[in-house]
Design brief:
By secondary structure, the chain is α/β, with parallel strands linked by helices. Helix content is about 45%, strand content about 20%. It is built from 14 helices and 14 strands. The strands form 2 sheets. An 8-stranded mixed beta sheet has the order 3-4-2-1-5-6-7-8, sandwiched between helices. Strands 11-10-9-12-13-14 form a 6-stranded parallel beta sheet, with helices on both faces. The radius of gyration is 20 Å and the shape is globular.
Length: about 375
């Protein structure tokens, strides 16, 4: 099949949707399918990365404007290649229905993937959240029946809020092979096995300010806190101001490839303290490495992590998070066996090869070939 994935910014990247698209594309290519990705960027160009064609379109940085604009800009590529394309998968439902209808008129099967519900982000005010809910309702019901999401918990949310049933194709990871070399520990003065790690988008929904405040309650210098992600935004500025003067809180920026693998392999604990998630790839990656995880008690995390595997804290609760840091430092040895169980679970259920086969089954079900 010829499959086109449309969405994301500057793929490949460290964002959840970007990682989902790129890794799915690579796994589909391994299965023998021809895959292209169309994403937004600051300049327009086409490149090949790991045998995946990636078409970059100029769009504003704001997702509210960028996604609809990207969807419409993708129509030129779709029309040009309409005789060879089997399916186009828009990576959002926000006003994707009109470009989706046009794509269908070109003879391509169309589906849509919901990665998250934008109205859940605390950075948006009440009025904007209401507007987003109205937009989501219109979009979901105009997009038809071929709607996917990335977790059972997110599918339940969509059904409860908007009355729409979604199919589920979850996130995956590549199992660690521990051969990538990186000097990132040396570059940032990181202590092997002695740092808390969080990797992902620097955004208020991730509650990284709570993580910083909890870490700063510790009274010793035995550990570091490493925050990996693009902090060039207002929330990143706030976090750096909050952490100012604490030499053990280290912002390393966006990480990929060997740097990311090195950070995961050598961390003490992985932290994911979000208020809302689709299915967090960063958590699946930490589980694949068998790393202890401090996590918030939200449905998307409960979906992949058993009670006994995680150090569970309350959402936006600094004291609860601080107590879990104390607990994992005090009782670290018991996590070794649990780490092996987590890694085994990920290998059985969440490798990209497994996820890509589920995705192809879904495409066959909707008649994409």
């Amino acid at each position: 099949m010829k499959i086109v994935l449309v969405g994301g910014q500057n793929v490949p990247g460290i964002g959840g949707a970007e990682a989902y698209m790129f890794n799915m594309a690579k796994a589909l290519h391994t299965l023998g399918h021809d895959v292209a990705i169309i994403c937004s960027n600051r300049e327009a160009y086409t490149t090949m990365v790991d045998d995946i064609e990636i078409v970059h379109k100029v769009c504003p940085k704001s997702n509210m404007v960028a996604l609809p604009m990207l969807f419409f800009k993708s129509l030129g590529y779709v029309y040009k290649n309409r005789r060879t394309i089997d399916v186009v998968n828009f990576q959002s439902i926000f006003f994707a229905f009109l470009p989706g209808w046009i794509t269908a008129l070109c003879g391509c099967k169309v589906c849509y993937t919901i990665h998250s519900l934008a109205e859940d982000n605390p950075k948006h005010g009440k009025v904007l959240k209401l507007i987003m809910k109205v937009m989501a309702f219109i979009s979901i019901w105009c997009c038809g029946k071929n709607i996917l999401t990335i977790s059972q918990s997110k599918a339940k949310e969509v059904k409860a809020r908007y009355g729409k049933k979604c199919a589920v194709v979850p996130c995956g990871v590549n199992m660690p092979i521990n051969i990538a070399e990186s000097d990132i520990l040396k570059r940032f003065g990181l202590k092997k096995g002695r740092y808390y790690l969080t990797i992902g988008r620097i955004d208020p929904i991730k509650n990284l300010d709570v993580l910083v405040q909890a870490f700063m309650k510790r009274s010793d210098d035995d550990f570091q806190l490493v925050i990996a992600g693009d902090y060039a935004n207002s929330y990143g500025d706030y976090l750096r101001e909050l952490a100012a003067g604490n030499k053990n809180i280290i912002f390393v920026g966006s990480v990929m490839g060997a740097d990311k693998e090195c950070l995961l392999r050598n961390c003490f604990v992985n932290c994911l303290v979000s208020s809302s998630e689709g299915m967090p790839i960063s958590l699946l990656e930490a589980m694949a490495y068998g790393k202890p995880c401090i996590v918030t008690d939200i449905p998307a995390i409960r979906e992949v992590m058993k009670d006994e595997w995680g150090y569970w804290c309350k959402t936006k609760d600094t004291e609860s998070l601080y107590r879990k840091m104390q607990e994992v430092e005090r009782d670290y040895e018991r996590t070794v066996a649990q780490g092996e169980e987590m890694a085994s679970y990920i290998e059985q259920h969440h490798t990209w090869d497994n996820i890509a086969m589920q995705y192809v089954e879904y495409l066959n079900m909707i008649g994409a070939k």
